[in-house]
From TrEMBL:
Keywords: Disulfide bond. Coiled coil: none annotated. InterPro entries: MDM35_apoptosis (IPR007918). One of its GO terms (molecular function) is phosphatidic acid transfer activity. Belongs to the TRIAP1/MDM35 family. PANTHER family: TP53-REGULATED INHIBITOR OF APOPTOSIS 1. This is Mitochondrial distribution and morphology protein 35. It comes from the Eukaryota. One of its GO terms (biological process) is phospholipid translocation. GO terms for cellular component: cytosol; mitochondrial intermembrane space; nucleus.
Length: 150
């Protein structure tokens, strides 16, 4: 199992992942338990709280709330149909979203992407555009500049 990206939440994540995988494989998939009777819910709440604090400290909580707001209609539609396993799967996805947001923040993913884009733009402007212009000029030369007429 992977570590939590908020180091202070590693132990809670490990306990939740272990509980969830055991419950899912031994009970849920065999029809012994339902998503309404998930014994790992308490562990998930603890882990979720820990991640929420880490997100708030890093200022990422607003991004997560915006993502949730954008998908509110989809969530309402799925929850209204009471799809089996949806809530459990959503728990896991929310946890992964928290971890991804923390990872992106800690490792400067956005700033790295912006730097890469700037570098590629510079290469394009300094190399590809001049070469294209030169090729266009060369192909449009009149017959007086061609080798056959010498």
């Amino acid at each position: 199992m992977s570590q939590s990206l908020a180091k202070e939440c590693n132990e809670l994540k490990e306990r939740y992942d272990t509980c969830f995988l055991k419950w899912y494989s031994e009970k849920y998939l065999r029809g012994i338990s339902t998503t309404d009777n998930n014994e790992c819910a308490g562990l998930f709440k603890e882990y979720s709280k820990c991640l929420h604090v880490a997100l708030k400290e890093r200022g990422i909580d607003k991004l997560v709330e915006e993502a949730r707001e954008d998908n509110k209609e989809n969530d309402a539609a799925l929850l209204g149909k009471k799809k089996s396993g949806y809530i459990t799967a959503r728990w896991d996805l929310v946890t992964r979203l928290y971890e991804l947001a923390i990872f992106a923040w800690d490792y400067g993913v956005v700033s790295r992407a912006a730097k890469g884009f700037a570098a590629l733009t510079l290469v394009f402007v300094l190399i590809f555009i001049p070469v294209e212009r030169l090729a266009t000029l060369e192909s449009n030369l009149g017959p007086e500049f061609r080798l056959e007429n010498n």
